[in-house]
């Protein structure tokens, strides 16, 4: 997806602002533990981009697909309340 489309969908300005730069800088710190939790070891390059350590993109697809397939889905359900405890919404 072109940057302009993404910025439009996320309602971000076309130019990089301070919030976007902070988010970009923290992406590795957030994504590496997430993919590690899914069983995908990662590495990053000098510019902060994250790659699977295996350098095989289908490993990422498999990990995400596997996690989604094992999730419980509630479709067309009415949400009656949201609770937050110990860092988790439920």
Quick summary:
The protein has 90 residues and is mainly alpha-helical. The chain has helices spanning 3-10, 18-37, 58-70, and strands at residues 42-44, 50-52, 84-85, 88-89.
Report on this model:
- This protein is mostly helical and 90 residues long.
- It is built from three helices and four strands; from the N terminus they run H-H-E-E-H-E-E.
- It has helices at residues 3-10, 18-37, 58-70; strands spanning 42-44, 50-52, 84-85, 88-89.
Question: How far do the termini sit from each other?
Answer: 32 Å
What is the chain-wise order of helices and strands? HHEEHEE
Largest sheet: 2 strands, antiparallel
- Structural class category: mainly alpha
Q: How many separate helices?
A: 3
Mean pLDDT across residues? 75
Report the β-strand fraction as a percent range: 5-15%
Gyration radius (Cα, Å) is 17 Å
Q: Spans with pLDDT under 50 lasting ≥5 residues?
A: none
What proportion of the residues is helical, as a percent range?
A: 40-55%
Beta strand count: 4
Using brief descriptors, characterize the structure shown.
90 residues; 3 helices; two-stranded antiparallel sheet; mainly alpha
Layout of secondary structure:
Blueprint: H1 3-10, H2 18-37, E1 42-44, E2 50-52, H3 58-70, E3 84-85, E4 88-89
Antiparallel strand pairs: 1-2, 3-4
């Amino acid at each position: 997806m072109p940057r302009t489309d993404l910025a439009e969908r996320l309602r971000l300005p076309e130019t990089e602002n301070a919030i976007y730069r902070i988010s970009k800088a923290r992406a590795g710190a957030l994504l590496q533990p997430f993919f590690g939790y899914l069983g995908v070891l990662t590495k990053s390059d000098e510019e902060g981009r994250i790659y699977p350590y295996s350098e095989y993109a289908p490993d990422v697809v498999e990990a995400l697909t596997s996690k989604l397939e094992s999730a419980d889905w509630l479709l067309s359900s009415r949400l009656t309340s949201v609770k937050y405890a110990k860092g988790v919404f439920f």
